[in-house]
């Protein structure tokens, strides 16, 4: 995208957030639903297909460009971002990276337009951080596979039109080498969904179990037509997703800082605005500093990824730092708001609950630490 078009899109998204999304934040949380007209507007803006190549109907944005859009779009309830998140991230990128031409043609244009929602089904009741330990099996039966198992906490599963689902095809191989990815559609006999999960926050974004009982799919559903490479697909998809999530965390932190600053300048105690007190200033300054550091990390990592550099370590550094940072910023925002920060009507407590998820999903902070340290040791050897 040329610089002018990108600039214009960023401004359009910023206006969309200010005028359409921010006024709906409380309603989306109360109703636990993003209104259909908002989804329609997101489609019209092209937000479902930012990361999908132009030849398949998307905008084909670079990571740098996508980051700039996310820094604008992320300044509101994460439920809105979640709506378009999987189509740009974990719900489409497996197909973009490793799909066959036919799989790309079948799914990517509809994911890019937002006609269908993509979902990534890796986690299981017994397999979270240890992703290679999944127990869902896919057994070859003639020109079909028969899949059995349960996937848990699957984002956007209730709305999904295609699942990138991971299952073990070779029980005898090393755990990571025995995993394959499949593209499954809802309505396939043997595939059912559990009830929508009740969560701590991010109301309006939905997760549920995906249950597979003797689910028969044609061999053409095997992602890329290759067995045994599913784990690596999952890891590469998550690397990219970590930069995306980090940008959203920066945007949310910036929003919370703006809200906390506005409140501190207007709220008076001891005869003056609380922003005049140095202990409040320290919270504002620390938040601003950390959000700025996080923004620099994300922009630099996105830029380096666009040059083709291996940014696995940096993507984990971003995910670790940005998600922990927004947690601290949200905590300070509640503190600056005082009693009001604890009350639902100000919305700050809702963000405090919403951001808690970022340290957990798409790899916990502890998994990021492990990945970073492992890569450091490997490089030093
Ligand atoms: N890109 C490409 N390949 C990768 C990779 C990456 N980022 N990370 C690992 N691999 C490869 C390895 O190179 C290795 O291949 P070889 O055996 O050919 O060398 C293979 O995948 C297995 O990797 P590893 O031995 O590191 O696997 P582990 O089982 O030790 O697991 C972690 C590694 C912990 C990093 C992985 O399980 C993980 O990321 N867990 C978190 C899962 C997660 O984010 N879940 C969130 C829910 S999904 S929204």
What does this entry look like structurally?
The chain is α+β, with helices and mostly antiparallel strands and 381 residues long. The chain has 3 domains: 111 residues, Acyl-CoA dehydrogenase/oxidase, N-terminal domain (Butyryl-Coa Dehydrogenase, subunit A, domain 1, Orthogonal Bundle), CATH 1.10.540; 110 residues, Beta Barrel (Butyryl-CoA Dehydrogenase, subunit A, domain 2), CATH 2.40.110; 149 residues, Butyryl-CoA Dehydrogenase, subunit A, domain 3. Helices cover 51% and strands 15% of the residues. The protein is built from 13 helices and 9 strands. It has a 4-stranded antiparallel beta sheet with strand order 2-3-7-6, with no helix packed on it. A hairpin with a 2-residue loop joins strand 8 and strand 9. Helix 8 runs antiparallel to helix 9, helix 10 runs antiparallel to helix 12 and helix 10 runs antiparallel to helix 13. It is globular, with a radius of gyration of 21 Å. The two termini are 40 Å apart. Coenzyme a persulfide (COS) binds next to helix 8 and helix 13. The site of coenzyme a persulfide (COS) has 22 residues, from helix 8 and helix 13.
């Amino acid at each position: 995208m040329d610089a002018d078009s990108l600039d214009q899109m960023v401004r359009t998204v910023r206006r969309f957030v200010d005028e359409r999304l921010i006024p709906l934040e409380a309603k989306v949380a109360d109703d636990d639903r993003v209104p259909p007209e908002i989804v329609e507007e997101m489609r019209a803006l092209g937000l479902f297909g930012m990361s999908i190549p132009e030849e398949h109907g998307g905008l084909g944005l670079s990571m740098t460009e996508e980051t700039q859009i996310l820094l604008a779009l992320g300044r509101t309830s994460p439920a809105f971002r979640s709506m378009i998140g999987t189509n740009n991230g974990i719900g489409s990128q497996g197909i973009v990276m490793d799909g066959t031409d036919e799989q790309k043609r079948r799914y990517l244009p509809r994911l890019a337009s937002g006609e269908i929602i993509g979902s990534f089904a890796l986690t299981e009741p017994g397999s979270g951080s240890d992703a290679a330990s999944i127990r869902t099996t896919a057994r070859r039966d003639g020109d079909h596979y028969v899949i059995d198992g349960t996937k848990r906490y699957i984002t956007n599963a209730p709305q999904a039109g295609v699942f990138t689902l991971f299952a073990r095809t070779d029980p005898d191989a090393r755990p990571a080498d025995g995993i394959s990815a499949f593209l499954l559609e809802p309505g396939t006999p043997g595939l059912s969904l559990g009830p929508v999960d009740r969560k701590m926050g991010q109301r309006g974004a939905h997760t549920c179990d995906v249950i597979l009982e003797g689910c028969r799919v044609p061999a053409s559903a095997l992602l890329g037509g290759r067995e045994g490479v599913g784990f690596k697909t999952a890891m590469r998809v998550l690397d990219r997703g970590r930069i995306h999530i980090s940008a959203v965390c920066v945007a949310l932190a910036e929003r919370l800082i703006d809200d906390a600053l506005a409140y501190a300048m207007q709220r008076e105690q001891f005869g003056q605005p609380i922003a005049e007190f140095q202990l409040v200033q320290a919270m504002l300054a620390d938040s601003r500093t950390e959000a700025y550091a996080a923004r620099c990390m994300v922009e630099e990592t996105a830029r380096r990824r666009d040059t083709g550099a291996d940014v696995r370590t940096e993507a984990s550094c971003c995910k670790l730092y940005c998600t922990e940072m927004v947690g601290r910023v949200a905590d300070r925002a509640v503190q600056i708001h005082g009693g009001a920060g604890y009350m639902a009507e100000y919305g700050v407590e809702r963000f405090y609950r919403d951001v808690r998820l970022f340290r957990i999903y798409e790899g916990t902070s502890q998994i990021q630490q492990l990945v970073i340290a492992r890569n450091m040791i490997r490089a030093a050897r």
